[in-house]
TrEMBL record:
Basic and acidic residues compositional bias, start-end: 7-20
Compartments reported by the entry: Membrane
Descriptive protein name: Glycosyltransferase family 92
Keyword field: Glycosyltransferase, Membrane, Transferase, Transmembrane, Transmembrane helix
Length: 304
């Protein structure tokens, strides 16, 4: 693999040669970076197992809590791979920071992608919610054989919680930004589910594939260019919705700002960005109970 020409302070794209598919490859895998996520990761795992995720590739960025031990108590070696992944890297010639998530995603595709029909690249505060089907894989039937799906963020803020409420995250937070396709800076973005054996370019929020270049599809299978997916016409959540529980409670938001983000080059820049995003979300919100409806419909158990 090789980096594309970096622009600005961060190198954010990698080109790769897609892996060769293994006979019998099937199912959906998730690749995610984690650090000290013990508070909520059990719910995230239980939910995604309930919607049919076959395997979790967890890249642990130096957790000092019980995140990894908890994961191993929930999942066996057939459903979990934990990869130690600590440290930041710079390009020697330019001192450009190499985006750690992009390296993780490329590593997951190249080393594990050959076993799966789909790989999803999300964070542990993001949930893949089928809207009509029971599983993520069934929901993806709407896109057919197309290899590159972009799901817009549905951004949930505090829902009025000053401190962490009792009970599951997904049942407590129902207020989200009204327009997932808003043009407000940093509020609108996508996460992707791709056929790993077709990917030729990797970044955090977008991919290119061998046969279709930068074309991507919404959850209904409608195809757009990378640029055109930002248009209102791209929006669909008919079959699959990506819920992003961005802040959780106000207390947890403050804790998040205190920790910073391992892959951001400036703590001050990160804090200002997060506060701006929260302000934008909370300026115009709607109630979204689709997650609660799904959990109740299928009697999903999110507790121990």
């Amino acid at each position: 693999m090789r980096w594309l020409k970096p622009k600005g302070s961060d190198a954010k794209k990698l080109t790769i040669d897609p892996p060769e598919p293994r006979a019998g490859r099937h199912g959906v895998a998730i690749a995610a970076c984690v650090k000290n996520e013990v508070r909520y990761i059990e719910e995230w795992v239980r939910f995604h197992r309930a919607v049919g995720i076959r395997h979790f590739y967890i890249y642990d960025n130096g957790s000092t809590d019980d995140t990894c031990a908890l994961l191993r108590s929930l999942l066996n070696e057939d459903t979990l791979t934990v990869i130690p992944w600590a440290g930041r890297m710079r390009d020697t010639a330019t001192s450009t920071i190499l985006n750690g998530q992009v390296i993780v995603f490329a590593h997951a595709i190249l080393n594990f992608g050959c076993y799966y029909r789909w790989m999803a690249f999300i964070d542990v505060d993001e949930f893949l919610l089928p809207k009509q089907a029971r599983t993520v894989e069934q929901a993806l039937e709407a896109v057919g054989d197309f290899p590159n799906v972009s799901l817009p963020w549905h951004m949930f803020a505090t829902s009025g919680h000053e401190a962490p409420p009792d009970g599951p995250l997904t049942l407590n937070y129902t207020q989200r930004g009204a327009d997932p396709m808003t043009r407000k800076e940093n509020v609108s973005n996508f996460k992707c589910i791709v056929d790993p054996c077709e990917v030729t370019e990797v970044s955090v929020h977008q991919f290119q594939t061998r046969a279709y270049g930068d074309l991507t599809a919404n959850d209904a299978g409608q195809r757009f260019t990378r640029r055109a997916r930002k248009s209102p016409e791209f929006y669909s959540n008919r079959f699959l919705q990506l819920n992003h529980y961005y802040t959780k409670s106000r207390q947890e938001l403050m804790e998040k700002l205190g920790r910073g983000w391992a892959y951001d080059s400036s703590a001050t820049k990160y804090r200002d960005k997060v506060l701006s995003i929260v302000k934008s979300i909370e300026e115009d919100m709607v109630e979204d109970r689709s997650m609660i409806d799904f959990i109740e419909r299928y009697h999903i158990d999110l507790s121990r």
